[in-house]
Structure formats: C-alpha cells, structure tokens
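Its record is set out here:
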Amino acid sequence: MSVAELLDEHPEAIATFLRHRMACVGCTMSDFDTIADAARSYGHVLAGFMAEIEHDLEAAEASRKTAATPARGGSPRRLTGKRGS
C-alpha cells in the first residue's frame, strides 16, 4: 500500500506521520512510496511504526464511537450556540 493510499483511506494516520516529522503528507512521492519505503527513509523500524499507525486508527475509531453515543438521559445534547442555555 502506498503512503497516499493509506492517508486517503485513513486520514487519521496523518497525525502519526506528522508526529514523526515525516514530510510524506502532501509529498508527490507518497503516490509511489510504500509505508515500508517511508519508514526506512526516515530510519524507523517498520513494525513499530505500523503498530503506532494501527494504534492511532483504533483510537480514532473509539473516539468516533464515543462521540456517537447519546449523553446520559437518553437523548443527544443539542448545542444552541447561546450562552447559558
């Protein structure tokens, strides 16, 4: 899988690349470089880097599930944009 394919399918992985100060996000080579190529280019161990990407994707999924859960009391909260409401 190319870096571009990963980031297109899972934009949550962008944070992992940025945290490692990797310029892959938006790079023209991301269409051609695999995740392994990118990890090797930046001196990262592939297994550890992949584990970190997977962790970030799982955390993003858990966050989405939590956000979709209604607040206590049964119905989702509604934000009106008014102070004190």
